[in-house]
Specification:
heterodimer; A: Helix Hairpins; Immunoglobulin-like; B: about 625 residues; mainly alpha; Cytochrome C Oxidase, Chain A; 2 domains; two-stranded antiparallel ribbon
Amino acid sequence: MKKLSILPIFLFLAGCNITVLDPKSSTGKEQSFLIWFSFGLMTIVVITVFILFAWFVFKYRYTKEKDDVIPKDVKGNLKLELTWTILPVLLLAVLAVPTIAITYDQSPVSDAKEELDGVPIDVKAEQFKWTFTHENGKEVTDELVIPETDAVIFHLKSADIIHSFWVPALAGKVDVFPDKELTYEIKNPEAGTYKGKCAEYCGLQHADMTFDVKVVSAEDYKKYIEEEE
Amino acid sequence: MNIPFFGDLPSDVLVAWIFSVILGIIVSIFIIKKKKLPVIWEYIRTTNHRKIGTMYILFGVLFFIRAGIDALFIRTQLALPNNEFWVFQYEKYNEVFTTHGTMMIFFAAMPLLLGLMNVVIPLQIGARDLAFPFLNAVGFWLFLAGAIFFNLAFFFNTTPDVGWTGYAPLSTSEYTPGPSTDYYVFGVQISGLGTIFTALNLIVTIVRHRAPGMKLTRMPLFSWAALITSFLILIAFTVLAIGLYLLMFDRLFGTGFFSGDEGSPVFWQHLFWIFGHPEVYILALPAFGMFSDIIPTFAKKRIFGYPAMVISLALIGFLGFTVWSHHMFTVGLGPMANTFFAITTMLIAVPTGIKVFNWLFTIRGGVLRMTVPMLFSLGFIPSFVMGGVTGVMLSVSAADFQFHDSHFVVAHFHYVILASTILGIFAGLYYWYPKITGYMLDEKLGKWHFWLFLIGYHLTFFPMHISGLQGMPRRVYTYGADEGLTTLNFLSTIGAFLMGVSMLFVVWNLYKTHTKKEKVGNDPWNGRTLEWTVASPSPEHTFDPMPVVKEMDPFWYAKQENRELETTTKTRAAPIAINTIIPILMAFSLFVVAVGLTFTWYWLAIAGGVLLFSLFIIRSLTDERKDHYGKGVETNE
């Protein structure tokens, strides 16, 4: 019961700008939609269980009057058992539809067959830094500048072990492998300054393997990649 | 600090040395003063299931405490942003979370569960011992040898720091040269081998040695859970053994399974998670079984929907092998794989849900006695559901791109594993403690333990959902003050210490129980199953004469109808418990092999191997039943 009472507090907290739930790209927005959607469906399950649990535990707790009571044995109930088999299946079917749709659209792929349309950025990860190479060959370490555009296409490869590329405010993460190149697309990033992190444990300075992300207007981006460091 | 022979020792290792030496001296004095040496000698050579189970539990608790202290180090380091607690930054932090994970899974949760199964399963099904008592002892000593080997790394300041998942290529010799990762490889390999033996043993015991009349459809649910879990262990731990074996060759002999041109780091992830995900159910199913026995006992009402409970156990076990790639949604397996594993993962929620509702409806209409085991079982239900639903959220693969490897995942798996496995182990220990020792644990202190632990557990892990969504990756030793993570992390730390404090009540409880020395009878809880018909603690020769089982919960219905259980003297030949020193020597010889390979002293590895084979030969030439012929033990197969 204690848990029930603290739940609203956290929901309230959830309202005020949790990074992942307040994403700054349409890719991230689709993901946060899925998070909220699945959370909503699962809240139904949690509340059902909590209510039944609290009701049964309270009603059937031991009291002095029940000292000699031997409760009636109930072996089962086919109708009830079918109910809590079929309803969850339906609930999960509802959840599966948007899951499949968005997963097909967003899953990172290796060796992208067709060239995706968008601003390409090569990402190289190594212990313990990130190198971003822009279209015209400009290389920058630990600072990622991308334009506000329809799509930014990241080509990710590692120079040593597995890392994972994550900008929580923009979109989900994608692993960076030494033996294959992965392609990940972030659509419609919004202007702002964000923090990027390595999300796959990679050794000594894993926690410090962060980078700054700036999303700027298309013109500013053009200027940025032209200017010399 | 520089110490001859050991080299530069950091202060945490030094403290551990001093602490261990002092503790060792105190324990030795206690043993000699109380004249306990013969007891220890007896336990070293025993093959009796209750004694082996007790040792599993003792060492499980010991390693649980060690891994728990590691957790407190982690939480103290993370309590505040940019914190620098003692030595726990960078490699020390990496070592401490690797140790915490590996120890909790392999050397705390597994032995505690195997220990409880060892003690309880034969008593529940009316067997006099496990089918292969000798193998049982081998399994236990292998577990202990692996655990000790893993623990030694810390004392020589070469603790593994590759995470409990040991992802390649980080775990290959190119990126972690030196012996540290080898301690992980061999420690887990040796103890895993022991686990496989014990699983085989349990399968044969449950299939072959049930009491007359105990059809599978009358078997208690903990025994069912043990049977299905054992099949999972058999497959999953074999896959892990292969993975570790290949990694060993990569590290020692330059093969390239998990790196280079021919190999791929993704292969390790597949092998590890084909083991790793069923492992989650290996931990959870026995707990489900225990709750399914404890709840009816204290509700005075048989389990609701027994057939559905058995089928859902089996379904969870089966589906558990089809979901491993949900740990790898961000690996780039492609949309098809991501969708398939999302759907199978969601499906697992269905049989799990069936179990939850069946427990709820077992409670409905009962008379609930709020004993400590019952409290832990009741605390499990809402807590586990909270962890279960985040599991469904994680199965949504595109959403998982955000959740993956963040503190949200840390919150999720601690929620499910603590709720099922740890609360289950606590429930089981309080419940069967009389059967193991003959004493009953104190109820009042037990309730303190329960409430502090439960509140601490929610306070620790609930905020982690939010800190994960706030962008905190797992396995980082610090975070910035400007990231909005401070309050959440501080709450988690308070919760962790509450759990720590609750464990002090366990220590107090044990002390109190064993100084009071109040013996209890066979059936202190008014139980339902066969284990409550034998003496507490259970003697070496049980079920003489053998009870005949005519229904589920036979003891309960016999008591209800005021009759004795029917018995028979016509039984199968029972396994014979003997005293032998060979099992511990076998484990020791594998330990020697591991030391030899870790430090590339191949002569030592060969010596260990030779010792092992000699022991096989000695064992083959020994007739272990010989001592019993004279005593007129019946063997009327």
